[in-house]
Amino acid sequence: MSNEPLAYRMRPQTIDEIAGQQHVIGKDTALYKMIKNGHVPSMLLYGDPGVGKTSLAFAIAGTTKLPFVALNATKAGKKDVEDVVADARISGKVILFLDEIHRFNKLQQDTLLPHVENGSIILIGATTENPFHDVNPAIRSRCGEIKQLKRLTTEDVDSLLERALLDKEKGLGKMAIAITDEQRKKIADAANGDARKALTLLESTIFASFEEDGVTKVEDSILNSLVDRVGVFGDKKGSHFYNLLSALQKSVRGSDTDAALYYLAHLLENGDLVAVSRRLLVMSYEDIGLANPSVGPQVLSAIQSAERLGLPEARIPLANAVVLMCLSEKSNSAYSALDSAIASIHAGKTGEIPKHLKDTHYAGAAELGHGGYIYPHDHKIGTFGGWVNQTYLPDNLVGTKFYEPIEAGEEKRLAAIYNRLEKFKKEK
b/e per residue, 404-418, with b = 16+ CB within 10 A? Predict the structure, then answer.
C-alpha cells in the first residue's frame, strides 16, 4: 500500500468525483459546464479548512488535462512565479493553483497579473479568509468566478468514507475491515464537515485497530479515544473564528440561549479566552445597555473569574454570563446615541460651546465673557436631585436629539425621567 496519507490518495481526479459542493460544481452549474467544455476561468475559492478547495483545483486540472502547477503563497518567491510564466509561454496555457492567496505580495502580483489578464495563466486561488476583505483587488478583478465552498454535510462525508473503504486502488479496499455503519457515521460526525479530517481519522482508526484472522476489527474504545482528540473546526483568528464571534453576539442579541451556548462552546474549544471575553464585555454594554445596567459589571466579574480560573473551568462563569445576557432586557440606545453624535460631528455639524459652560478657573475668564453657569445641585427637583433649565448644546444645535430612550427593563424608568425633563425644557 502507498505510504501517502489516505486523504491525499482519495483526492478526486475529476470534477465528477467531488464530494458535495453541488452549488459550485454540480452538473447543472455554469462552472461545471464550462469546465466540461474545456474552458476554465480564473477563480477564487474560499471556505473553511478541509472543505475541498485544493481538491477542486486538482479535479479541474484532471478534467481538462491542462498543465497544472501548485504553489503556496506563504512560501512561493518571485522565481517560482517566473517559472510558471515561462511554462505558460511554452505550453500556451497553465493552471496555477495558489493556496493561501491572501498572502500574495505585490512583487509576485506584478509578475503574474499581466499573464492572468491575457489568459496564458489560469489562476485558481484558495483562501480560508473572506476574499472581499483579504485578497488584493487587483487579483479579485481578474477572477471571473468567486466561489464560497461550504462544509460538507455528514451524509457527504459518510459517502466519501464508504468510497475510501471500498476503493481498492486508492483507498482501503484491499484490506478486510470490519467497521459498522454506526462507527463510520461517528467518524463523519466528528469531522464536522472536513473531508481531510474524516479520512485521516478513518485511517488512524484502522491502523490503531487489531487484526484477527486477516480481518481488522474497529473497536469502539479505539474509535472513541481518537474522536476525542479531533480538534474543533476552524482556525483561531481566521475568518471562521470571527464568524463564530459574530454568530455568538447575534444569538445573544436575538435571545437564543441554545444557539449562543453552542457558539460559545465552539469558541472556547478553539482556546482563545481573551478574544471571547472581550466580545462578551462589549456585548454587555452594546446589546444589553441601559435596559439592565447591572449586567455590564456582572459580565466583567465573570470574565475576571474566567481569566483567573483558566480553561476548562473558565467555561462556567462565561456560560452564566451568556445565559444572563440572552434572557436580559436589551437596549442599544446609549451607544446608538453616541454614534449619532459622532456622525453629526463628522458631517460638520459643530458649533461654539456656550459661554456659561466654558472654563472659568483662570484670571481673565470674565473679561472674555465666560461665566453665568447655574449650578444644578443648588436647584432641587423632587427626588431626582438638582436640575436647572439652561442651554448645553451649541446655539446652532439646540433642539438636536441624539438619544432616543427605549422603554425596556431599567431604561423604562430612565425614559420616564428623560421625557419629564424634556417637558420641563419646553415649559421655559
Answer: ebbebbbbeebbeee
Whether residue 114 is preceded by a cis peptide bond, meaning omega within 30 degrees of 0, is no
* CATH assignment of the domain containing 208: 1.10.8.60
Do 288 and 214 share a domain, yes or no?
no
Residue-wise pLDDT tens digits, 355-393: 988 888 887 878 788 888 989 998 888 788 888 889 989
Are 318 and 398 in the same domain? no
pLDDT confidence of residue 369: 83
144 and 58 within one domain: yes
User: Does 67 share its domain with 132?
Assistant: yes
Buried b (16+ CB within 10 A) or exposed e, 73-96: beebeeebbeebbebbeeeeebbb
Q: Which residues of 348-377 are buried (b: 16+ CB within 10 A; e: fewer)?
A: eeeeeebeeeeeeeeeeeeeeebeeeeeee
Residue 218, CB-side half-sphere exposure with 13 Å CA sphere: 24
The answer as to whether 263 is a domain residue is yes
Find the DSSP H helices in 3-122: 6-9, 22-25, 30-36, 53-64, 78-91, 106-117
Q: Is residue 208 part of a domain?
A: yes
Query: What is the model's pLDDT at position 303?
Result: 94
Rg (CA), the chain: 31
What is the per-residue pLDDT across 202-236, written as a single tens digit (0 to 9) for each? 998 888 888 888 888 988 888 888 876 655 444 45
Q: What phi, psi does 44 have (nearest 5°)?
A: -115, 130
| Encoded amino acid at 224, one letter | N
User: Helices 295-309 & 315-327, crossing angle to 10 degrees?
Assistant: 160
What pLDDT does 229 receive?
60
303 dihedral zone (left: phi>0; alpha: psi -120 to 50; beta): alpha
Q: Would you list the DSSP string of 218-233? A: --HHHHHHHHTTPPPS
Task: Answer yes or no: are the C-beta atoms of 205 and 197 closer than 8 Å.
Answer: no
Per-residue CA distances from 148 to 44, 145, 175, 184 (Å):
8, 10, 36, 27
User: Which grid cell is 68?
Assistant: 497544472
232 falls within a domain: no
> How remote is the C-alpha of 247 from its chain's centroid?
8
